[in-house]
């Protein structure tokens, strides 16, 4: 196959992913149709079969693709790695997280698609969690471990990571409610910056001052 | 109309609300059909028209009904009102919030219905926000104002209220992800108790230690 042909193939595949992202975000996995996706991508219906096997395969690829693209645009870790303070690493993690779900440098359908999949999961959620969400969780757990120091249980670290992520995700998942409760919110770049700074300060104040005797465990 | 007849009417209306809650939670507002709701409630299709005008009217009533029932079972404020400390009021607010969205004493469809409406809103969200969500927000803002004391901007109080609510809502909205990331979670009553205690401690540590010079404002 010539490289020109490869480029053509890559273009078709890419157009399918973009169109599918839009259509899945709009209608949800079940109601979305291959016909509409191929129409929007201007490709033959057989292309889905060729590149992605079926609708399930296409959907799974779209989720991973959206996540990968967002991470490329907004990396979760600052350059410099180990030389950066835990506080700064938390700040970058939170800011990049909010940028990935709310920021302008991502496809407009990304946040909605993810919100749908998280709240009403399909069979694709397992792969999304293992390949995209769990690696990020590992990064965040490392940052929190560095911030709170030794003597804090693994389960406590997990609860704290959920508190940090929950504060961020709420701005995406509950956006329709937040815009009604706080009409001054525009979700502009300046607003995202301000929210990131607040979530960072709130979380640092909590993590630096948690009662140390707390060693709670969950049911299991 | 005899009181017996009134009771009969109340029973029909109630059965419709319960059946509609289940069906709307399962299929979403758009895909749910009046036929299925009436079939499950074992009432004539004309009853929807009689009691709720149309599908929109029924849906709006179901949202308010679910919220009202949850608040009756799990009130947001402790008895005793002003005599209770701000810390204890925050603890009760968080515990009752988690119980309303996750606890056993609510219809199983309640959390899912609310999650759907929050993430993919319909025309009913305006009324839900004004009649159900905003009054709770006012309570929470009062508690936070009491905790942080004077000299903190109204906007800062709002950001803190979003941090508290976001931590709670995440346990409901991201449940499918959290169960995969933390398989030991059972969402049992003991787990909910443990989560409530964590969110309370995390939020109190943050609210008591926020940097005071922070007077951030939003875009508007």
Helix fraction of chain A, binned, reads over 70%
Shape of chain A: elongated
CATH superfamily of the largest domain in chain A: Tetracycline Repressor, domain 2
- Largest Cβ-defined interface: A-B, 62 and 62 residues
What percent of residues of chain A are in strands? under 5%
Q: How confident is the prediction overall: mean pLDDT of chain A?
A: 89
Helical/strand content category of chain A: mainly alpha
Question: Can you walk through the features of this model?
Answer:
The structure is a homodimer of 220-residue chains. Chain A has 220 residues and is an all-alpha fold. Chain A folds into two domains: 3-67, Homeodomain-like (Arc Repressor Mutant, subunit A); 74-209, Tetracycline Repressor, domain 2 (Orthogonal Bundle). Chain A is 74% helix and 0% strand. Chain A is built from ten helices and no strands. The longest helix of chain A is centred in the N-terminal third of the chain and has 29 residues, at 3-31. Chain A starts with a helix and ends in an 11-residue tail after the last helix. At the A-B interface, helix 6, helix 7, helix 8, helix 9 and helix 10 of A face helix 6, helix 7, helix 8, helix 9 and helix 10 of B.
